[in-house]
From TrEMBL:
PROSITE patterns: 4FE4S_FER_1, 4FE4S_FER_2. GO terms for molecular function: oxidoreductase activity. SUPFAM superfamilies: alpha-helical ferredoxin, NAD(P)-linked oxidoreductase. Residues 335-365 form the 4Fe-4S ferredoxin-type domain. It comes from Methanosphaera cuniculi. This is 2,5-diketo-D-gluconate reductase A. PANTHER family: D-THREO-ALDOSE 1-DEHYDROGENASE, OXIDOREDUCTASE. CDD domains: AKR_Fe-S_oxidoreductase.
Length: 379
């Protein structure tokens, strides 16, 4: 059975505008449902929910279950490291926040700029080697949104890497920018087990265009989510599929799917090719709502939210031009919200985007779409 990992990146919040306001009642229920069904892998990171995800791991999982029954994955925020001494500081903070004692899986988070660190004489791999020797981490891996060539260079240079976490889903499989298929092939070439992130592309593959959904449903009555997970279950070498679950219904639904996960057959794979074409015809901005860009925006623009409105406006059979436009205009009326025209084109966000989006340019697209007389926009 392919394993379902509990991704702790999009936890339920009490206040949707406050990432740190974890709803522990809801989260505890979700964790209980997940563990009672025989699953035990929790994936957090230093930066998720502005540090509160690691605390949530402690409160909802470590404090309430036997540590030895739980598998904990945590991530070192490589992108934040500017000097060697930060490595210890951050790792100790992670141990303290989670109270995990050790990490079963420890990942270098979002590797894509290692040479930059090496140029500053920061030796991350010696640091993690020492952690492993001391029993503080059990398996070392890295997550990356970089291209296949970059990933291969790391694996060549660092055979001590035990596993790799990659963005793989059927929509990105042959995508030239994300390169899921090529990255997957590199991981297999070096015999590295794979943990899958973004299997539903940040929820994007849950609400596909109606035409694509109908195609899938008419063939076997299954939902787009089932098709997405079944696609992954047909790939060798995958040890875990992470799902960033947000409520107990999602946990229950996912468990049901994973308890009887059958790979897609050849006919279904052909249908999926058509589904990909339909989605690609309709997709406007390839944003997964990971929110990595938002913390670096000096203006405080909720980039993911604006892109989401834009995508819904563009997608076939969505509620419609006027509805999304009205939502945008109403959003702009609240003075604490920032909109596309507030972007100062500082470019700080672009390096942080795992999907390699040209965010400042897309901000112009959003502005041109919504901030017009058609919508009665007034700033
Ligand atoms: S380019 Fe625009 S959206 Fe990006 S960080 Fe700067 S102000 Fe924010
Ligand atoms: S624009 Fe990029 S970094 Fe920002 S939320 Fe979307 S995918 Fe993530």
């Amino acid at each position: 059975m392919v394993n379902l990992g509990f991704g702790m990146m999009r936890l339920p919040q009490k206040n949707k505008d406050d990432e740190k306001s974890i709803n522990y009642n809801q989260l505890n229920t979700m964790v209980d449902t997940y563990i009672k069904s025989g699953f035990n892998y929790f994936d957090t990171a230093y930066g998720y929910h502005k540090g509160e995800s690691e605390v949530a791991l402690k409160k909802s999982v470590i404090d309430r279950y036997n540590r030895s029954d739980i598998i904990v994955a945590d991530k070192l925020p490589v992108y934040m490291i500017n000097k060697q001494s930060q490595l210890n500081e951050i790792f100790n903070t992670q141990l303290k926040r989670t109270n995990a004692g050790y990490f079963d899986y420890y990942l270098l988070h979002d590797m894509g700029i290692l040479s930059d660190k090496e140029n500053k004489d920061i030796d991350i791999f010696s640091f993690t080697k020492d952690l492993k020797k001391r029993g503080l981490i059990r398996k070392l891996g890295f997550s990356s949104h970089a291209d296949a060539e970059y990933i291969e260079n790391i694996l060549k240079k660092h055979p001590e890497v035990d596993f790799i976490q990659l963005q793989i889903n059927y929509l990105d499989w042959e995508n030239d920018t994300i390169q899921s298929h090529k990255c997957y092939d590199v991981a297999c070439k070096y015999n590295k087990p794979i943990i899958v992130m973004e299997p539903l592309k940040g929820g994007f593959l849950v609400n596909v265009p109606k035409k694509a959904e109908k195609l899938m449903h008419d063939y076997n009555g299954q939902t787009p989510i089932m098709w997405a997970f079944r696609f992954l279950s047909g790939l060798d070498n995958i040890i875990m599929i992470l799902s960033g679950m947000n409520n107990n219904k999602q946990v229950i639904d996912n468990i049901q799917i994973f308890n009887d996960l059958q790979p897609l057959n050849d006919e279904e794979l052909n249908i999926l090719d058509e589904v990909v074409d339909i989605i690609n015809e309709n997709i406007a901005i390839n944003c997964t709502s990971c929110r990595y860009c938002i913390s670096v925006c000096p203006i405080g623009i909720d980039i993911a939210k604006l892109f989401d409105m834009y995508n819904h406006d563009m997608i076939e059979d969505a509620p419609g031009y006027t509805v999304c436009g009205n939502i945008y205009v109403n959003y702009s009326k609240d003075e604490k919200n920032h909109i596309a025209s507030d972007c100062i084109k500082c470019n700080r966000c672009t390096d942080r985007c795992p999907q390699h989006l040209n965010i400042p340019k897309l901000m112009d697209d959003v502005k041109n779409r919504f901030e017009t007389e058609v919508y009665g926009f007034k700033k």
